[in-house]
Structures are given as structure tokens and as C-alpha cells.
Automatic annotation (TrEMBL), chain A:
Keywords: ATP-binding, Cell membrane, Membrane, Nucleotide-binding, Transport. It is a peripheral membrane protein. Its main location: membrane. This is ABC transporter ATP-binding protein. GO terms for biological process: peptide transport. It comes from the Bacteria. It comes from Kribbella sandramycini.
TrEMBL record, chain B:
It comes from the Bacteria. It holds the Pfam family BPD_transp_1. Its main location: membrane. Residues 100-285 form the ABC transmembrane type-1 domain. GO terms for cellular component: plasma membrane. The keyword Transport applies. Signal peptide: none annotated. It is found in: Cell membrane. It is a multi-pass membrane protein. This is ABC transporter permease. CDD domains: TM_PBP2. InterPro entries: BP-dependent_transpt_permease, MetI-like, MetI-like_sf. Belongs to the binding-protein-dependent transport system permease family.
UniProtKB/TrEMBL annotation, chain C:
Residues 95-294 form the ABC transmembrane type-1 domain. Belongs to the binding-protein-dependent transport system permease family. This is ABC transporter permease. The keyword Cell membrane applies. The chain crosses the membrane at residues 9-30, 101-120, 132-155, 175-193, 229-255, 275-301. The lineage of its organism: Bacteria, Bacillati, Actinomycetota, Actinomycetes, Propionibacteriales. Its main location: membrane. It is found in: Cell membrane.
Amino acid sequence: MTTGEVLLKVENLSVEFDTPRGAVRAVDGVSWQVRAGETLAILGESGSGKSVSTQALTGILEMPPGRIVSGTAEYRGADLIAMTTKERRRIVGDRITMVFQDSLSALNPVQSVGTQIAECYRVHRGMSKRDALKRAAEMLDQVRIPAAAKRARDYPHEFSGGMRQRVMLAMALALDPDVLIADEPTTALDVTVQAQILELIAELQAERDMGVVLITHDLGVVSDVADNVVVMYAGHVVERASTAAALDRPVHPYTEGLLGSMPSADLKGQELPTIPGTPPSLRAIPSGCAFRPRCPIAIGDCAHDVPPLLTVAPGRDAACIRRTTLLEREAG
Amino acid sequence: MSDVQAVVSAEAQELGDGRTLSNRELLRALLRKPQFVLCSLLLLVFFAMAAVPKVFTSADPRFCELSKSRHSREPGHPFGFDIQGCDYFANVVYGARPSVLVSICASFGVFILAGTFGLLAGYFPGFVDALISRTADVLFAVPGLVVLIVILNSVPNRSIWIIVGVILLIGWPGGMRLMRSTVFSVRNREYVLAARSIGVPPLRILRKHVFPNAMAPLLAMTTLGIGGMVGLEAALTFLGVGLQPPSISWGSQFGVAASYRDTPHLFLWPALFISTMTISFMIIGDSIRDALDPKLLR
Amino acid sequence: MIRFVLRRLLAAIPIGVIVTLGVFALVFAMPGDPLRELAGDKPIPAAVLAAKRAQFHLDEPFLVQYLLSMKDILTGNFGTTFAGADIADQLRLRIPVTLKLTLLANAVQWTLGLIFGIYAGFKRNGLIDRSLLLVTLVLLAVPGLVAYFAAQFVFGVQLKWFPVSGVLEGFPNSYLLPALVIGVLGFAGLARLMRTSIVETVNADFVKTARAKGLGEQRVLWRHILPNALLPVVTFIGLDLAGMFGGAIITESIFNLPGLGQFMFQAIKLKEGGVVVLLSTLAFLSFIVINLLVDLLYGILDPRVRHV
Amino acid sequence: MALDPPAERRFAEEVGPTVRRLTGVVGVALGLSLVLASCGDGKSSGSGSGDGARSTVIAIAAEPLEYINPLNENGSPGIQVAMAMFAPLVTTDPNTGKLLNVMADSVTPDKNSQTWTIKLKPGNTFQNGQPLTAKDYVDSWNLTAQGSTAWKNNGFFSKIEGYDALNPETPDGATPKPTAVKALSGLKQVDDLTFTVKLKVPFSQFGLTLQYFGLAPLPEEVRKDPDAYKRKPIGNGPYKLAADWNAGDDIKLAKWDGYKQTAPDADAITFRFIPNADTAYNEFQAGTVDFVGVPSTKIKSFKDDAPDQWVTSVSSGANYLTLPAWDERFKNPKLRHAFSMAIDRKAYADLVGLAEPAKALVAPDMVGYRADACKYCDFDAAKAKQLLAEAGGFSGPVNINYSTTSATGQIFAEALGNMIRQNLGLEVKYTGKQGSEITELADTRKLDGLRFSGWGHDYPSIEDYLTPMFKSTGDANFSGYSNPKLDQVLAQGDAQPDPDAAIKLYQQAEDIALEDMPLIPLITKSDAFLHSAKIEPRVSKYVGVSALWATFK
């Protein structure tokens, strides 16, 4: 059962990095929102700014060199960015939690996993050590780790990749958060384990009516679990749609390209099409539309201005001057 | 020396998994740092002193009038006179050569030795590794200064090459360990595996694939350690096993002058030159380290 | 764990043999007659020389001399030096001196190094951090000799804050000045290492995780960053400690501390192979034992390298 | 040994190894007394000088002693301590230079000075209360003369009849076995207080040699088990151990009531061992010791560092540059003269400090010294070059050996090297080695090039310079020099009963040696000592500077 309440709403978020060669804008005017029970996928290649945006709003981005230039990120109406660190800490880690990609390096190697999970209870709930550890073991059990009570005393390197990711999940879900931000949670895992983890997330999400922000570069993952998808390219949101709609009829040529390069049964035996070229370095983003150099339908005007994110159909936005309406896609 | 080495190796260790820069990128990054440029210039001056001392002073460092022993400066003799009544400026200038040679040769030699042994030990586990590592253990376990003193006391003629040789003997194990651990992390990378699978001979793999990708930490350690060598040379003179005259070096100048407190210029100048050179090398080492640090490249 | 310790100790035996044999050979190969060294420039009657030579087995072949020395060492029957000093007495006298000096110096070094290193690492690029980098560079560049002589003259002779030399005022007074100098010179390295290590650790993913858990900065620092950042530092400190029985030859000489370093230097000058080998063995044993302890400690600190 | 500044070994070697002779009774006494006596000062900073005002802390720049046994001690640190704890048979009057009896009541030679009768004063005892008898001397000396005892003063007794029976020739390297004979046949106890010494050959100076502290008697209990007493010596002198003495400790002495002869002023004396001479000097400046020898590096500055608190010894002895007679390149006397005249002795003496250019082969305070003896000792670069040319030049670099044990060895070597290089146009190289290694190489005639040497007389006669260093069989003839004519003149001098006539002959020998010049005279030098304001060390032109005999202000 889902209430559909908007839990986290990001508006016009821009993040820059100060480098020795001047400021670099990694996230530029990004907006999205996630509702209770919804899974929002943020899709993009590495360097597209998808992780930076979530790290910035949760305050775990190294600042400096990072810097939030503009934007708001409201959790139930309270702007996380404008808050003091102290206030934010009451929400991040409690109501909004995160899971990272590389669970081996994301877990503290010198603490037992039980201790690490228990720390959430100790810090946010003020529990005694013993109670916290007991809850931690229960949590491990909930993420289907066998012999959880015993394994709570083990250290991260003693778990397999999949098990470790479950530990991460247990830690993130320990306090029953409203929003789970999962940053490439399955990238390092092999396909079967990946499926198990995604399934687990979906299950737990359903139990808790939780909003999930799933950051990934894998369109397959998106198609499997996401309700809505935000596509990012070079720091910009280039397309925003429901997953079904985006997969069915992508508007932005980049989304289109991604979709085209996804292996599928139809294309069996053929060479997989790819998007020509490589993503731009953040230091040298092309003028106008950043995707222009790789875009099959680029025209001269694309070089002039950064294309705004326009509504091309109800619930569908895209940033492409060639396709300001959904219909133009067919035409173009 | 050992302290510096240990720190540096530990500092450099962190670079092990760093990505490698192309040489030109590295140079460009370095040239942007004013302190790097300044120190490089200073070092160039020292190197020039070592190579062509005549350019810096017209005085003959070995023309001495004992009657001027330890006189302070006078026109034409900006640093005054040394104990023998020789022009001290000329002596300090000429002293650059052994000091620079010892520090550079010893450091470079340690780099080569440690690099080679480290490569071999890291790339050929088993007998080769055991042989090299156990030898290093032996050298680690003996206090280095003791070996230095004993050997330098035994040789008939203490030239800079002997001193360099002994430093090499006791200096390589530290660098070897660092190199070995870096090689461990590199030897199973894709490009190495690829090269191996297509049958590239091991030595070529080492030369073309492993070494270039594993040498950065050792290089940083070496640059940071160069300066300590000059200080070491001074200590040897204090212990009576330093360079012998007519060799002129900052270390022996300082070592000899340390007891003559009433004429401070005798130890101030060489100490200043030693320290300046040491700091220059360290800052350059630091800069290289920073430039290689992947965290700052992002 | 016991197996690990045993294996390490067993592996140390051949190394110990090579170390002692090598050191003994080096001393043996030094030119000059050891007993003449003892006599200075004075002629000594042939009969006296011969008697001494026999007493110290100097008339035996190299290998026999070595084996006799090792036998003496292993049976704890150290005998006397050429000059007649009871070696066991000397060790009883000198080991505490060296221990006090190195421990005090290390305490200074660790305290300063850890405090400044941690602070600078946490407040990266701040004023303290930048000053620290500069100061440590300078310290690392100052030749030890300069520092020792200068400190003795300024603080001992001129200001009279510390005893000039010797151990008459006992612990800690007599050891303060040399320990401070060693400690301050050594702190530079430790502080830089600590700082680097923290800087490296701060960027680790698990620190992000900790932040994402909503932990306070202090908790992140002390509970997550520091325990990990200390690991390489432990290794460094271990190496430092392991070398301490080598003694600080130069410091001990300048500050007239009758420690193992001076004993060793003296023995080398007198070509006393037996003493040199004994001291080398001590240094070697402490090296092995301390390394082992550090490895065991490391195993406790870092579950990834636990030695079972 | 006078040359050997007792204060520290490094110091001793700084101009070059000074050759000291075991038998050097007078010499030892001279040298050692320099150091010995200092008395303390009240403000000696609580660092362990005894209590009370009349106490002294004397710094000895040497490794701490391992035992106190005068008979097994020939280094100045050990003899210095022995001088406070043991009393000699005779001593030199510091004011008149005459011989004074201490333990001896009389020392009488027979007609030809071959058999000497020594009578002891009655009533003297050891510090354990046991009376001091002739037997103690005879037994102590016999024990030392026995080669297998391996005590360092064994060599002293080689002049006494029967020595060879106790020290049979052993094949090289073999261990001497205790001999069946246990006593010197020349040593006879006559009664409780009298014994006689019969020498192998007549020796008129034997009485002088008896002031050597290395001849002290040991009481019976010590003789039985010397090792058991090495840290608790029982002496017969003015001071005894004030407290237990353990390895590495200061040696603390207190006045011994039982001493019946004239004793020094101090109530308590502490000997402190500080191996690094510069450190010892610093200690003095910090006020923790009362008496210290000035290390060579401070010769130029000590007068400013401690105004009114220094004394210098009257110099005696001489320093030389020794040329190797075994090297053909140095054979030509003209070449040797060229080297000598290339040296600016004045500048060199200034560099060394407290030194004077040498003008003869013997010390200036000897009877028979001639300031104009050396015709080739004036600095004249042009003449030197000319002589070198006449000698046919010199091939290869000139190697100068210096002792690395000394802080200044290298500096002094460079100074001379610079002169030889600049004034003769020769290439010079340097070899730093430990002092003893140089001596050994010279001894075995393997040393390449020049070395420094020094000599202090054992008894005040120019004969004691010429015989040991220049006679073909001289025991300190490290240059390998041999000239039958000189040997012959020396022998004539030895046989000449009239002292003045003998000196004439010895001077002839000196002239021969100067013409051949196996050693180039360099300088004669003094030593300096610092003392705290409270004490005034005794300075004697006969026995040098003594801290033990200092007076309190």
C-alpha cells in the first residue's frame, strides 16, 4: 500500500568542483522527486553527475572541493541543503539512507558488520550496546543472511560480494528509512546475485512503503525495477519519464542510443549498436547541447544554447531542441 | 636516513594503486607549482656548481694561506677562510660535487637496485622472491650505521664511490619492499595478463608493462630520500669514516667545523647548503608525489 | 597463532646465523691487530699479547672464533671485553640507558607526531597543516649533527635548562634533552605519515558510508577514520622500535650516554668481534621480536591480516 | 709520555701518535700528573662531587675504567686514578725537580748502578690495615713480570735479571704457559723493609724510574685473586674508594686517614669519564666539573670561554713528521731537507695552538738542547724547491697518514699537505686510519708515506730522544732509520762517564740525524687545562699540571 506522498524533491540542483584549473560544473540544474513506494532510477554514464547530485544533497560530498551552487532538496518540505549540518544529520542516516556500489570498500574493514549496523541504533536511537547489537543481528536476518547472529561478529572481508551488499542493505534499512538512495548497488555483482539483491530491495521497499532512488548506468536494471527514470548526461537531466514510457518511446537521442545499445533477444546475432564517441570530460563540455557531438540528429542550432528541459508530453520532459514534443520524435 | 626512508616509503605506498600519468602530463602539472620551479632552479644551481665550479668562483679552493686560518669574510672572500686559510666560498662551491654525486648516485643506485630486485621479487614469487626477501631481511636486521662504520674502516681508501657503494648495500632493502608490494598489485592487472597470454617473454613484460606502472612510489621515495644522503655523509665524517682530503664536500666541511663553535661561519655555510639542497629535493619529491596522487587529479 | 609465532621464529634462525656470521666476518676482515688497538700506541710485551690472544681465542681460525663467540652468546657466558670489562655488567648498565633514551625519544616523537599529524590530517590545508608541512620539511632537512650540537650548546651550556651530558641526574632529567632532539627530529616523519594516512583514509568509501549513516564528524573521525589511518603508522612505529637496540651512536656520543650505541662503536673501533656480534645478535633478536609483536598487534587492529 | 695529554685519548693523538714507553717512569709521572690532580670546587653543581667544600670533580675524556690495578695499567686514565689511590716509592719534587722519597726510605745503587737496594719507611700500611712490606713489592713485581699473567706493565721488568726466564720466547701466536720459575732472580727480599733489584746491565737512571705509579704494590689478598678486587682496589695512597664502584660509575674517592706522607688538599675527589672531549669541555662550561683538559678544537677559544680559569703546562717533548726509510723515493737527504724547509712551522704552530716551531730533534727544556741545531728547519720555499730539484724531484703523490681517532688529525695533515703541495709543487694525498693501525703499518715497514709522531722523554736527558728514535735498534725507531756512524757516536756517549762530554757526543749524534733527517722536527707544544674558580691546580715546570695536588682558594 502506498501513500504516494512526495518524500524527497530536488529542484534546480547545481554542484561545482573547484579544481586547480578552475571550477567544473558536475551537476547543472537537476530536478527530480521521489514518492513513497516509488522507485526512481537515475540513469547515466559515469561522470554524468548522477552520484554527485545525491551525495551533495545528503551532505556527504567532500566540500570543498565540491560546492552547491544552487538548488533545494526538500525532504517532506524541509530543505536539506539550507539546513545546518546538525539538523541534516537527524534526517540523513535516519530517514534517508544510502547504499553504495563497492561494498568491500564501503564497509569499515576494521569493525565487525554487527558493530557497524548497531552504530545506527546507538547514534540515532540511543540504544545500549547490547540492544543495538541484538537489533543488528535481527536486521541481518531480515536481509536473509544465514546464521545472522553469528555472522554479525564477522568482518566485511569475510563475506562474499552478495552477502556484503546485503549487509549494506541491512545497515541502510536498520532504521526503517523513508527514502533509500542506492548508488549502483549491484554493479559489482554477478547477474544472479544482482537479481537477488534487486528483488530483496523491492521486497523490503514494499514492506516499508519506502521511496527508492536507484542510481545506475544499467538500463536493464532500470527496466526491471524502476517506476520512473531520470536520464542524466554531462550534469544535465536530458529526459524524465515513467520507465515504461521511456523504454517504449525514448525522446532524447541519448536515451534512444542507450536503449539501442541494450542487448536484447531481437538483436540476436547482430552487432550491438553503440553510441559513437565518448562522454565529454567535465572540463571540456561542448557548448550548447553537451550531447551534440555524438548526436545523430544534431543541427547547427544545437551549439548555441543549452537546451532547456521541456515538457514534451504529459509526465514527460526532455532537453532536446529537435524534439520539443513527443510527436517530433516520429517526425525526426 | 632510515626514518626518512620509512616515512617516505609508507607515504609512497599509498600511491601503489594510483593511475599513471604520462610524462608530459606530469611535467605540466609540476611546472604549475611555483615551489617546484623554485626548487628545481636551486638544484640546477647546485648541479651547475658540481659540474663547473669554475663558473661560480675564480678562486682556487686549494690555494691556502695558513696565516688566514678561520678569518672571517673580507672583500673577494665572501665566506671568509676555512681552517687551512683557504677561500671558503671556493671550498663550498667545490664541495658541491662530492655532495651532489654522493646523494644522486646513492639515491639513483638505490632506485635501480631496489627497483630491479623489487621487480624480480614481486614478479617471480617462489625461489627468486624468497632469495631476495630473505637477503633483505638480513640487511634489515643489522643496524645500518654499524655496517657503514665497519666497512668504511676496513677499506684502504675511502672514495665517494666506496661510500656510495656501502650506502647502496644497506639502502636497497627498503625500496625493494616497496617495489615488491607495488609489483604485487600490478602483476595481475589485465594488461599484464594479456601480455603474458600472448607469450611476451617475462623480462619484456617486466620492462614494458610492470616497471612503468609500478615505479611511481619508489620514485617518490627516492626523491624524498636524496637529501638525507648529504646529512649521512656529514655524520660519517663525525664518526671518522667520512671522505678524506683532498676531497672537499659539504658533509666533511660541516663535520670538521662542528667543533669550532667560535667561528660559526665554518659550519653555517655548509649546513645552509646541505639544508637547502635537502629541502629542495624534498619539495620536489613532495610535488611529484602530489602530482601523482590520483585523488587530486579527479 | 602459536604456529604463526613458531614459524616466524624458526624462519629467523637462518637469518640470525647469516647476520651474525656476516657481522663477525666484517669485523674479522678489518685491518689491524685488535690487541694493538687496545694498547694504543704503546708497545706491549709479546708475552702479554700472546696471553691476551689466547684468552680471547684470537689465535684460532675464523670459523672457530665465530663458533666460540656464538657458544658464549648462546650459553649466556659473555666474558669480558679486551679492556677487561665484564660484558654482562656492561649490558646490565647499558641496556636500560638505551631503553630509557629510545623510549623517551619515541614517546616525544609519538606524542608530537600523532597530535600534529592527526590534527593536520583532519584540518587539511589549514594554517596548522601548512605550517606543519613546512616545519617538517625543515626538520627533515636539518642534519642530525647540527641539531645535537646546537641543542647541547644552547639548552645545556648557555641556558642551563638541561644537563649538558651524562646520566648523573638520572631518569628523566638526563635523558630529556637528547630525547627531545631525537623526538623532534623524528616527529616530522611520523607527523607527515600520520597526516598522509588520514588524508588517504578520509577519501575512503567507508567514510562516506559513515557520513551517510548520519554520524557526527567527531564520531566519523575517531571511530572510522583513525582506526584505519593508524594501520600504516603502526608499521612505521614498529620499524622504529625494532631498530632501537642498534643504539643511537651519534646521540650517545655527543651526550655521553653510556648506551649500547657507544658500546658498539667502541667495540668496532677495538675490533672486538665477540662484542660486536653479541650486540648485533641483541639488535637482531629485538628486531625479530618487536617485528613479531607488531605483526601480532597489527593482526588485532586489522582483522584482514589476522594470523591464526 | 709527557706529550700525552692525559686528559683524553683523542687529544693525545692529535698531532700524531705520541710514542710512550712503558719504562717511562719520569715521563709517565710527568704526563700523568698533568691530569691527575684537581681539586674540587664548591659549586660543582651537585653532580656528585663529594660533600664538603674541599672536593673536586675531575673530567677524564676517556671510556670509563674497567678496573683499578696500577700494575696492569699503562694508559693515562688508569694511572691518573692510581696516582690518587697508590703511593710510589719516590717522586719528583715539583719545586726543585729533585727526587723525593715517598714509600722508600732510601734507594741506593751499588758502585756501577747495577744492583739497587730499596729500603722502605716503616709504619706504612695498605688501606686494609695490613703493613706494607718489602715482600709486597717483590711479590707484586714478580706477579707482573710473569708473562702469563698478561699485565701491561710486564715490560718494565725486562731490565731486571731473570726476566727472560719468566717470559720464554713463544712461537708466534702461541699461548704463553705459566713458567716453572715464578720469581725474578734479580729481585731479592732482604728483610721486612728492604729488597734489592739486580739489573741485567748497569743503568744509572733506574732510581728515577721508580716513581712510576705502575710499580705500585698490591696487598696479599689482592695478589691471590686480582680479579675479585678489580672494582675494589686496596691501595697505599692518600685516597680510597668512598663508595661502591660499579661499572660505568664515577670513581668517588675520599681521603684515607691512614696515609702518613704529605697528602693533597682535597677531602674528596670524583673522577668522571666523558669519552667525547668536546662534551667534557661543555660540562666544564656548564659548571659540573672542576677540571678538564682543553680539547684541540678549543685551543683557540678556551681563554675566552674561561677567563682566569685556565692553566697551561710547560711543554716538553717534540712532534715530528716521520719519513719512511724503507721507501726508496725518500732516500735522498736533500729531498728530506726540501720537505723540511717547505714547512712554515710558525703558521703550523699557530694552527695547532699553544705550540712553538721546533728547531732541534730534542725538547727545548733538555740539557744539551741547541736552538740552532737544525739547519733545515727554517721556512724557505725557494730553497726547498731548489733542494727538491737537486734531489731529482719526487715521483708520485705524497701520501700523508693521519689518525681518524683524533678530531684534528685530518686538519693538521691537510695543513702540512697544503704546504708541501704549494711550496714544492708536489701532488698530495691523504689516508685517514685509526692511530694504532698506522703504528702497526709503520712497525712492519708497510706504511706508505708520511706520518705524524711525537716523543716524550722517560727521563730528562737528550739521550732518551736519540737512542729510542734514531739508534738502529731503538725501540721507537718507527722510521726504520739506520746509520752505523750515529750508533757508534751514541755508544761512545753512553760510555762517557763525564756528563758534559757525554752531551757533546750526543749532540754530534743529533747533528748526524739532522743531516739524514729521518724525522722532520715540527713543533713543541703545551697543553691547556681549565679549572673552576675554587681550585688552583699545581703547575710545575718539572712535573706539569696537577689537579690532584691543586690548592683550594
